[in-house]
Amino acid sequence: MAKPAKSAGVSLRNPQRTRERILAAALKEFAAKGFAGARVDLIARRAAINKRMLYHYFGDKEGLFKAVLRLKISQRQAWAETLSGDPAETLSFWFSAACKDMDWVRMLEWEALQQNGKVIDEKERFDTVARGLKRIRQRQARGLVSSELDPRQIMLTMRSLTMFPAAFPQLTRLITGRSIQDPVFQKERTDFLRQIASVFRPATGDRAKTNSIASS
């Protein structure tokens, strides 16, 4: 019993580090079992705290799930703001991000399987999507992305192209003969995404016209 008390004391002195540990442990548990199957006591154990401390910071399991979602989404929002908007860069970046963070992809897959259409923190996530669609429209206005394509379909297709191998690693291996973590596969996929990026760009004439309008 002395060990949990010591952990709690450390947690109180370092609230930010404690939150980070809890969120990291929660991501692992939600990725492994989904929201319905995740156990708060296992998350607390992985984070080296007691359950009371977890409830103190996040309220309940749904509050913890929301916190993980918001953390991961805010990270991705920050990354998105740094991208130039060129489709080749966008596709290769998000594919690399999916390969490096397969727990996030698995967590989304569990959500699709378990929630029966319900989306936790739906309003916040709608707002995030709206910001992403706004960025796409801005890139269309700048002549980086074809204005003939529906921004919603662009977003959905780009996510499909970049996340599918991580979401279905068994199909990736069956089709390509390589694991998603194989550097050879990752290079081949990145090269392919850079090639297919031309589909999202405006035709040369349309791009020149857009640039002319923007500079006038």
Description:
79% of the residues lie in helices and 0% in strands. The protein is built from 12 helices and no strands. The protein has helices at 2-13, 15-37, 40-46, 51-58, 61-82, 87-100, 102-114, 122-141, 151-167, 169-176, 183-196, 204-215. Helix 2 (15-37) packs antiparallel against helix 3 and helix 5 packs parallel to helix 8. It is globular.
Note the topology.
Blueprint: H1 2-13, H2 15-37, H3 40-46, H4 51-58, H5 61-82, H6 87-100, H7 102-114, H8 122-141, H9 151-167, H10 169-176, H11 183-196, H12 204-215
Helix pairs in contact: 2-3, 2-5, 2-7, 4-5, 5-8, 6-9, 6-11, 8-9, 9-10
Write a concise keyword list for the protein shown above.
disordered N terminus; about 220 residues; 12 helices; mainly alpha; single chain; about 0% strand
| Overall pLDDT score | 89
List the helices and strands in order: HHHHHHHHHHHH
**Tally of DSSP β-strands:** 0
% residues in beta strands: under 5%
Radius of gyration from CA coordinates: 21 Å
CA distance, first residue to last residue: 73 Å
Number of helices: 12
Q: Output the structural class.
A: mainly alpha
